[in-house]
Amino acid sequence: MRSGRTIADLDKLVPFARIGKPEEVAALVAFLASAEGAFMCGSLVEITGAQAMASC
């Protein structure tokens, strides 16, 4: 079911003025799976373009 929203409409909902790119999510996943992210434990990482902060 389509919502009738365009990419431009969705971009307006995000404080960074654009929706995220798949490669940005992939970069986070790669970091968390790498040795550099090995010391992280039980963390919640928001990758929302500050959308989560704007709704607080």
TrEMBL record:
It comes from the Bacteria. One of its GO terms (molecular function) is glucose 1-dehydrogenase [NAD(P)+] activity. It is an enzyme of class 1 (oxidoreductase). Its EC number is 1.1.1.47. The keyword Oxidoreductase applies. The keyword Oxidoreductase applies. Keywords: Oxidoreductase. This is Glucose 1-dehydrogenase 4. The lineage of its organism: Bacteria, Pseudomonadati, Pseudomonadota, Alphaproteobacteria, Hyphomicrobiales. The gene is gdhIV_1.
